[in-house]
Amino acid sequence: xxxxxxxxxxxxxxxxxxFLNADAQVAKESFSIHYNHAGLRTIEVKEGQxxxxxxxxxxxxxxxxxxxxxxxxTYDRYEAHIWLTQQDLVxxxxxxxxYNVFKINTAYPSASGNKSFAAAFTTSLSVAQEGKAHSVSxxxxxxxxxxxxxxxxxxxxxxxxxxxxxxxxxQ
Length: 171
What we know:
Blueprint: H1 2-28, E1 31-37, E2 41-46, E3 49-57, E4 75-83, H2 86-98, E5 107-108, E6 122-129, E7 132-139, H3 146-169
Parallel strand pairs: 5-7
Antiparallel strand pairs: 1-2, 1-6, 2-3, 3-4, 6-7
Helix pairs in contact: 2-3
């Protein structure tokens, strides 16, 4: 019976060591993601944390003065700081690889030559991983490739799913 116990302990120790080594491997590959959309949405993944800021249109009641839409007073601001698990970090790293973020062009100029209202709102995406860094920027009226649009939508969805998961865990 003692031999069986010793063997089980050794096997469990082996799998624990393999598991911890896999986690350490992911942690070694440091990376960061920073996304900012016209001051209305900010996503930052850095040092094992997610900092997520988003705004939604404020709903005004009857009799309340209506403010111009471009005024920040018309938006409610939300913010979340989340410690990420190793599994979460892998999801963000997979996002970098899936959308080949390092191969996206660095700039998409304004389609109107910065003469339209939308051109005033800039968006940027920066990624750093394994000693490489890459930044992309575009104006509100820029024509951007579908792949970049899908990458940003997926990044936002990952953040929202992570936030939803944490809320469920804390209830």
